[in-house]
Amino acid sequence: MKILVIGPGGVGGYLAYKLKKCGNYVSVLGSGGEVKKLKIKDVDKIDEVDFDRLDGKYDVIFVTTKSYHLDDVIKILPKYLKEDSILVPILNGIGHFEKFKDFNYKKACIYILSNKENGIIHKKTPLFYLCVEDDERLREIFKNCDLKIKFSDNIDKDIWKKYLFIATFATLQSYYQKPTGWIMENKRDEAEKFIDEVIRIAKSFGVDLSGEKERVIKQALNIPYESKMSMQIDFENKNKTEVENITGFLAKNSDFIASFYYSLKNVQEAS
Length: 271
Prior knowledge:
This protein has helices at 10-21, 70-76, 136-142, 155-176, 180-186, 188-204, 213-222, 230-236, 243-251, 255-270; strands at 2-6, 25-30, 33-35, 37-42, 45-50, 58-63, 81-89, 108-117, 120-133, 149-152. It has 10 helices and 10 strands. Helix 4 (155-176) runs antiparallel to helix 6 (188-204) and helix 4 (155-176) runs parallel beside helix 8. The chain is globular and about 50 Å long. The chain folds into 2 domains: 2-153, 3-Layer(aba) Sandwich (Rossmann fold); 162-270, N-(1-d-carboxylethyl)-l-norvaline Dehydrogenase, domain 2 (Orthogonal Bundle). By secondary structure, the protein is of the alpha/beta class. Strands 3-2-1-6-7 form a 5-stranded mixed sheet, with helices on one face.
């Protein structure tokens, strides 16, 4: 089977690298066109991979761009799709799935700490955990890969579980311009209220996260004090951000979260 990865950043670049290393035909497409080679730093190990040439239609397409690039990506997708191709969007948030409603797609989320720095994909910790909706062809392309994969029979809950953490701390970090450790030390009450609101909203979408609050708090307390999410880094650098997809979706259902969202939107528009 042929695989195309669109968006070779920290997530997509590392995923493409591993899929190629385990014997698949893998092409990569970035904002500047075809990507033929990437350098990878997997924790401390440096490696390089050559990808297969961009060629026609693909069996599986992973979309790993930032959410604000999705409209442009969706315009070009038909060029690479066969009638039975599978799309796998791997992005932060929930709201982006609506953009794929006219395609044959499988939902997914990923746990990884990886960034693109000076042209190198740097996966900073051993963590890699991909949750993806179960499918025989997806099992096939990952069968020889040394990756932790969960082929989920309850993908909506798995995605909301990740969203619970990332929405809370990406929003609060960006709002206060402080890392996770500072949030838990100085704004823990707000963090807990934010978590409660996301759990309430998830329930309105039919997803029960009632047992997840303590897990998220423990996770936040255990990660490095100075940990920053990509949305905070984008705000710091005055880049485009994913505030619409990460925070805006929740703001429609919570006055408490809306107050953070509109403040962040004002900051983004001012920059």
